[in-house]
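Students often ask why we bother encoding 3D structure as a string. The short answer is that it lets us treat folding as translation between two languages. Here is a chain of 357 residues written in the first language.
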Amino acid sequence: MGAKMVDFGGWDMPVEYSGIVGEHLATRTAAGLFDVSHMGEIEVRGPRALDLVQRVTSNNAAKLADGQAQYSGLLTSAGTFVDDLLVHRIAPLHYLLCVNASNQDKDFEYIRDHNNFGAHAELENAGARYSQIAIQGPKALGILARLTPAPIAALKYYHFAFGEVDGVHCLIARTGYTGEDGFELYFSPEFSERIWNGLLQAGHADGLIPCGLGARNTLRLEAGMCLYGHEIDDTTTVWEANLSWICKIDKGDFLGRDALIAQKQTGIERILAGFEMQDRLIARDGYVVSIARGPSSIAPAAGRVTSGSPAPFLKKNIGMAYVPVQASTAGTKIQIGIRSTQAPAVIVPLPFYKRAK
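And here it is in the second language, the structure alphabet:
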């Protein structure tokens, strides 16, 4: 389809088809189609399945019902991130974990190393059995509904069901990584082209277009969503990443709990915050962040940009960075070191973009 291909963690991936800005705007206003089959899947089964999921993740999977998913953290004993992931409860004894592509094998080994109950949970590194295609945007529901008899309109956000899409058995999840309504489809890889082409044909008149990694990144940044290796990694804790809502300290013991309790008592020194540039310059990943002290003074470095780019829909230049807690209040003026310039920026609330309900 004329995509510009790049290496992405060992995967040959499209960074763009027709252009990042156009793909971004199509997803915000109509619909975008993303091949995210590089994402990893790990299945946990058996009588100890919930025990294992609870032990290695920070959210409370015990509160999930069948057909419900949650965003969570796979944490180290220090309360930092091995990865972030989605936990799907398929049945009381069966969970599907969707993890980041480059982390799949590492995540599997980490979970396996902590699967040391008296009776182990059954664990499968199942990524090779799944393709995953995401359709995102305000017209996603109408397009997908043409290809499935499943009652997807009744699915709530972060819920899923099994059904046929274009005659293919799928797990149909109302989830996504764009800030828009939409669905992620999990199915057997031999049907990848059929599902992809079927969706493109069904959505052509509605403006559905294929989208690559570039638009996926700008969309998730506008929506204030973290990216592993940027906002979160094994040096950042849940509290620092401003993700306290996925950490349920009172659910019982889990990896990292003691460290997180201790950090909460002592307090954190830095926290993830969003910012907007105040001129036309663009903050890029890794640029140095300083706290503004006045037009003639150069402040010491206070952090680095974790993600930064133009926001095509908002028509602003935005980014996220770790800053001192005392400088994280909306309205705080900061500076971004861009080449030889200290470019002005201001802290703003996250997310930058939130779709209308």
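Translate back mentally: Residues 31 and 137 are 4 Å apart (CA to CA). Keep this in mind for the problem set.
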